[in-house]
Amino acid sequence: MPTEDAPIPSAPAEVLLWKGHSSQWVHFWYYFFCFLLAAGCVAAFPFTAGLSLIGLVVPLVLWIIRWWLTKTTSYELTSQRLKKAQGILNRKLDELELYRVKDYTLSQPLMLRMLGLGNLVLLTSDATTPEVHLRAVPAVEELREMIRQAVQAERDRKRVRELDVDGSGAGGLV
């Protein structure tokens, strides 16, 4: 009895849902330390005959490198993947298929909450990236909901479900 092979439906086009990067506020204490170091160099100016001004280079370079590292780390959420690109000279791109996301943790420390920012941690079944951290991103509640809906849609499209297997022996039917 001949059977006809059903045509495989093509995957829908990937749609960009959100793009952003971490806020510089996540490094507040680091920048504050650089400021104190620079202030110390300026305060030592009269006692060192101006040599302490050379020390201003250190906090300035530290500040610029940290700012640049944060600025060059970007996140891109599409309907199928979460992409994280980072690096200044050497770029690294890490992609996470959304159907692999198992759980979400949203945290908003007081300082970030006052600034409208928050942290989002995604627990995944990905071998190379079991946790994805999105630090100090704006409108984190809306982003979490957007990721949750995209994960469910991608699981439905791929017909994939997350299965929790309990090692205690009291698990349900598999």
Provide the fold topology:
Elements: E1 16-21, H1 28-43, H2 57-71, E2 74-78, E3 81-86, E4 92-97, E5 101-107, H3 110-114, E6 117-124, E7 131-138, H4 140-158
Antiparallel strand pairs: 1-2, 2-3, 3-4, 5-6, 6-7
Helix pairs in contact: 1-2
Offer a concise description of the structure.
This protein has helices at 28-43, 57-71, 110-114, 140-158; strands spanning 16-21, 74-78, 81-86, 92-97, 101-107, 117-124, 131-138. With 174 residues, it is of the alpha+beta class.
Task: Characterize the structure shown.
By secondary structure, the chain is of the alpha+beta class. Strands 1-2-3-4 form a four-stranded antiparallel β-sheet. Strands 5-6-7 form a three-stranded antiparallel β-sheet. Helix 1 (28-43) runs antiparallel to helix 2. It is elongated. Residues 169-174 have low confidence and may be disordered. The longest helix is centred in the C-terminal third of the chain and has 19 residues, at 140-158. It has helices at residues 28-43, 57-71, 110-114, 140-158; strands at residues 16-21, 74-78, 81-86, 92-97, 101-107, 117-124, 131-138. The relative contact order is 0.14.
